[in-house]
Amino acid sequence: MVLPRSKDQLTPTQVAVIVCSYLLGSGTLSLPRVVTSEVGTPDGWLSVLIAGFLFMWLGYIMAKLGAYFPGKTIYEFGEEIVGKWLGLLISIFIIVYFLSELAFETRMLVEITKTYLLENTPREVTLALFLFIVVYIVVGGIHPIARLFGIFLPITIIVLVFILLLGLKLFDINQLRPFMGQGIIPVIKGILPSTRVYLGIEGILIISAFTQNGKPFKKAVLAGIALPMLLYVMVMIIVMGSLSVEGVSIRIFPTIDFIRSYEIEGLLFERFETLLLTIWILQIFTVIVSVFYVLVTGLACIFHKREHAFIYGILPVIYILSLIPRNMNEVSLWGDWNNQYFLMLCGISFILLLIQKIREKR
């Protein structure tokens, strides 16, 4: 059964904005530490760049897979490719992954908010408020979501680039030398942890149902991945060039510490970490909205109901799951677990495309 879709299709620009918004998540704050701790050299930015090109290729694969089944999500066309029962198992796997990712992103949002902005506010209160706002947006459907993202994304990019450039007075190119001083092996080791910031391209398998599939859609997907990739590389280079490899490795959120380490006198703001956290909250909010939407869409497809039937029912589950981790170490382990299953989902997409191509030749 194919759920009814809106007659108004997403434009290529809206697709690019949604993909880009989905990818600009919590990795902005912790990426330098996660990658540098694994690489151990100043070449972590190169690992992020290589991972970005790999995921542009994976994004293209997902877009091509969705192009075979106009108006359908992976929850629907998965059954057409591998059969009803195996397709159902894949759908359940994807839903469990999205549920876990949603709980993780929500808890990250609450932790950062409590640590840096609302120290005396209980996590439970912050979590409940954020979830109700998310529900308000998701109830409107994909098109209000796309319009909201179109407002948030330019603000996020402008503020992030502005704040990073202001800190260039701390930047020392020597902190990035020697280039590949220990060869290619450390760079390769950094590719896997770099993949965490590209969690989100799997949303392509759902939003393809709301587009006119073809070259514009595929180009929009590639553009939506390329922009976050360039921003993440910029963050890696500037933060590492300012704090050094050792300085980045010992900080939980090195991007915040980098911005805290400089002041600009004479401007409206002299310290900018609050400004960064504000736009980060806007951006992580868009990630949570995206994951929530694709989650309820999957439940609607499996049970053949309207999405609204699951929007409110899934809230208690997300609330409880988000509060399970006891500290940031457990939250980080949860993120690592999600990363492994995300890579499995990418593999499933690749296999589905191969099977579809074989079927097409027959």
Question: Would you write up a description of this structure?
Answer:
- There is one protein chain.
- The protein is an all-alpha fold and 362 residues long.
- The protein has 16 helices and no strands.
- The radius of gyration is 20 Å and the shape is globular.
- The two termini are 25 Å apart.
- Mean pLDDT is 84; it is low at 1-6.
Keywords:
362 residues, mainly alpha, Amino acid/polyamine transporter I, disordered N terminus, transmembrane, Spore gernimation protein, Spore_GerAB, transmembrane helix
Q: What is the tally of helical segments? A: 16
CATH homologous superfamily placement? Amino acid/polyamine transporter I
Any idea what the CATH architecture is?
A: Up-down Bundle
Question: What is the CATH third-level topology name?
Answer: Amino acid/polyamine transporter I
Helix content: over 70%
| Biggest sheet features | none
What is the mean predicted local confidence, pLDDT? 84
Radius of gyration: 20 Å
> Could you give the count of β-strands?
0
The percentage of residues in β strands lies in under 5%
Distance between the termini: 25 Å
Structural class based on helices, strands and sheet pairing: mainly alpha
> Based on CA inertia axes, which overall geometry fits?
globular
Order of helices and strands: HHHHHHHHHHHHHHHH
The CATH class label is Mainly Alpha
Low-pLDDT runs of 5+ residues are 1-6
Number of domains: 1
